[in-house]
Design a protein that fits this description.
Number of domains: 3
CATH architecture of the largest domain: 2-Layer Sandwich
Structural class: alpha+beta
CATH class of the largest domain: Alpha Beta
Shape: globular
Number of helices: 10
CATH superfamily of the largest domain: Chloramphenicol acetyltransferase-like domain
Helix content: 25-40%
Largest sheet: 7 strands, mixed
Oligomer: single chain
Strand content: 25-35%
């Protein structure tokens, strides 16, 4: 029986998708729920699962083509058995009178779940997916897992030069005299990011105010309780949970920083959905901590850790990236000392964290070295006045320099 494989229902805000790659070829056996292809939208990568066991008979849409909900992608012969085994499997001798399983069947039975980025690394380095130990929740193999396996496989030959990393999409080489350039199309996510950033700067009156925070008290608290915290909650106590807590306290004091503009109205959100920017191979993603004011330090750290793993492995869900009333981005992880972040529209403000740097500071008439961080608040000046922006940033600073305020709500 022939089964048609069609583009699944795309999220409401997504008009179309790009078929990135086929994971099966005509004539190969497929198992129910096995991923057949990767669909890239401007926000997430979606799998196309096989609805039945059988053999992939025909591919209707080549990789690289745009598709919409319901478009016919391929045809599967339900219940069919692949007749042509790979050459290596066909040449394998029988053991105890029984033929060994085909490579396709073995891979189907043992291959773990892999992200699109991880699959590219696996294919480029000719790795066996089943031999890679997954690190992500649910047994997912991440790109980092695949890269680690590739490095381990290459270890016995240190004298060989490492090949240059291949672009994620085909590059067009352009010769300009003796010089060569590469033209690589933007991914849909990168193009969407570019569109949103330009839109934010074109439609909002963006202004940035700065302050600096002494993180000595936070560092001391982390050092004192980090082992007990990790032992009890199974996650490390990082800086981000302190910043999320400090931000939600500031948003409670200055609700307009948590607001957004719709037409000629100011919408005051009576909830605190804080987005935390995560850098991935495909571009920046901002998963949302829902009702961040009600989350414990442990819950914040756990959710951020899970978001980061799934965002980088391509397993993040669209609903986890939509909404949000305020955002935090941390350029300090890459060494940035100061920056002016761009608001994630339709939000009206974003907090930029930066590198912690020991600097001499005047404290009670004496010069002492303190761990300092510059913080930046970019805001939409159409609805947020400078007074409110500065006071919000001061409130964040006070909470971080005296973390007891976060516990007492003062």
């Amino acid at each position: 029986m022939s089964i048609e494989i069609r583009v699944p229902q795309l999220p409401e805000s997504v008009a179309d998708a790009t078929l990135m790659a086929w994971r099966k070829q005509p004539g190969e056996a497929v198992s129910r729920d096995e991923n057949l292809a990767d669909l890239e939208t401007d926000k997430v990568v979606l799998d196309v699962p096989a609805p039945v066991n059988g053999v992939l008979r025909e591919i209707k849409v080549p990789a690289g083509q745009s598709v919409k909900t319901g478009d016919l992608l391929a045809v599967i012969d339900e219940g069919a058995v692949a007749t042509a085994a790979p050459a290596a499997a066909a040449a394998a001798p029988a053991v105890n009178g029984k033929a060994p399983p085909t490579a396709t069947a073995t891979a189907t039975a043992t291959a773990p779940k892999t992200s699109p980025a991880a699959r590219r690394v696996i294919e480029e380095n000719h790795l066996a997916a089943g031999s890679i130990t997954p690190s992500a929740p649910g047994g997912h193999v991440t790109k980092q897992d695949a890269e680690a396996a590739a490095r381990a496989a290459a270890a016995p030959a240190p004298a060989a030069a490492a090949p240059a990393a291949a672009p994620a999409v085909p590059a067009i080489l352009v010769q300009r005299g003796a010089r060569t350039e590469q033209r690589v199309p933007m991914t849909r996510l990168r193009a969407r990011i570019a569109e949103r950033l330009v839109q934010a700067q074109a439609t909002q009156a963006l202004l940035t105010t700065f302050n600096e925070v002494d993180l000595g008290a936070v560092q001391e608290l982390r050092a004192r309780y980090k082992e007990a915290f990790e032992k009890k909650h199974g996650v490390k106590l990082g800086f981000m949970s302190f910043f999320v807590k400090a931000v939600t306290e500031g948003l409670k004091r200055f609700p307009v920083v948590n607001a957004s503009v719709e037409d000629n109205d100011i919408v005051y959100h009576e909830y605190f959905d804080v987005g935390v920017a995560v850098s991935t191979e495909r571009g920046l993603m901002v998963p949302i901590l829902r009702d961040a004011d009600s989350l414990s330090f442990a819950s914040i750290e756990q959710q951020i850790g899970e978001f980061a793993v799934r965002a980088r492995s391509g397993a993040i869900k669209l609903e986890e990236l939509t909404g949000g009333t305020f955002s935090i981005t941390n350029g300090g992880t890459f060494g940035s000392l100061l920056s002016t972040p761009i608001v994630n529209a339709p939000q009206s403000a974003i907090l930029g964290m930066h590198k912690i740097q020991d600097r001499p500071m005047a404290v009670k008439g004496a010069v002492v070295v303190r761990p300092m961080m510059y913080v930046a608040l970019t805001y939409d000046h159409r609805i947020i006045d400078g007074r409110e922006a500065v006071q919000f940033l001061v409130a964040v600073k006070e909470c971080l320099e005296d973390p007891g305020r976060l516990l007492l709500g003062v």
